[in-house]
Amino acid sequence: MEYVEARRDAVEERLQEVVERVDTPRLREELEHVVLAGGKRVRPTLTILACEAGGGDMWATDAGPKKPLQVGADGDLALDFAVGVELAHSASLVVDDIIDRSTLRRGTESAWARYGHGPAIVASDGLLGEAFHLFSADPRALESVSRALVELGEGEATELVDQPATEAEYMELARRKTGALFRTAAELGAIAADANGPTIDAFGEYAERVGIAFQIRDDVLDAVSDAEALGKPAGHDDQMERPSIVRVTGQSPETLTEQAREESRKALAALDSIDMDDGQARTYLEDLAIFVVERER
C-alpha cells in the first residue's frame, strides 16, 4: 500500500497548494472544507496510475518507496490534472448534497449545511473554476473534461426529471453520472503521458467500466449499510425516491454485486488491450477494478 499511499499523499499536497492560492479568505475556507475533509481520492489516483502505466515520466528516478516522491517531467502535469478531477468531482458533490438535502458528507457537515445554500453554490463554482484553470494546459484535457461534465449534467437531469424505469436505462444513467468522470480521470493520465489516441480510449474504457461498477456498489451499500459505516446518510435513495439499481431492478444485493463484478471484469479486459509494461501502476489499476466492488464504504 505504500506505493499508492505515496501517490495519494502527492495529490493531497498539490490539492492543498491549489486551495491555498485562492485569494478570498471565505471562499478559501469553504473550498478547504469541501476538498480537504478526506475522501477516497479514487479519481485522482486513477489519473496518476494511468499516467505511469501509459509510460509517463511520472517520478524522478531517485524516488524510493519510503522517500517523498519527486515529480518527473510528465508528473507535474498529471498531478495538476489529478487535482482538477478531484475539484470537479467535489463541485458535483456540493450540488448533489443540496439537491438531496443531505447534511453529511465524508463524516462531516456538507457545504450547504455549514455555510448555507448560496455560499455552497459559490464554492461549487469556485471549485470548477480552479479545475478548468488546471485543465487549460492541454486542449485534449479540456475536451475530455468538457465532454465528461456534459455527460454528468445530462445524468443528473435524467435522475431528477426522467427517472430510469428499466435496467438498461439505469446503466446509461450510471455511465453518465459516474462512469464519465472516471473515464476522463484515466484519459487525463494518458494525455499527461502523451499516449496515442487508441491508448487514451482504452484507458477511458477501462475507467468507465470501473465507474459503473463503483456506482452499482454505491447503490448496494446505500441499501444495506448504516450512516456510521458509510460516512454519509444511508438509505438515502429510498428516502429521496432517487433511482438506484436496487430500486429499479428489485434484485438482491448479492446479485447486483455480482453484476458490478462483471463490469470490473470488462474493465480488466480493456486494460489488457493496452500495450504496457507489467509494472506496479498496472497492478494497482487491476486492484482498483476489484476494490470498487468489494469496498464497504
TrEMBL record:
Which Gene Ontology MF annotations are present? (2E,6E)-farnesyl diphosphate synthase activity; all-trans-octaprenyl-diphosphate synthase activity; dimethylallyltranstransferase activity; geranylgeranyl diphosphate synthase activity; metal ion binding
Instruction: Tell me the cofactors it needs.
Output: Mg(2+)
Which EC class is this protein assigned? transferase
Coiled-coil regions, chain positions: none
Give the UniProt keywords, A-Z. Isoprene biosynthesis, Magnesium, Metal-binding, Transferase
List, in alphabetical order, the GO biological process terms annotated in this UniProt record. isoprenoid biosynthetic process
The entry's family comment says: Belongs to the FPP/GGPP synthase family.
Q: What is this protein called?
A: Multifunctional long-chain (E)-prenyl diphosphate synthase
Q: Which gene encodes it?
A: idsA2
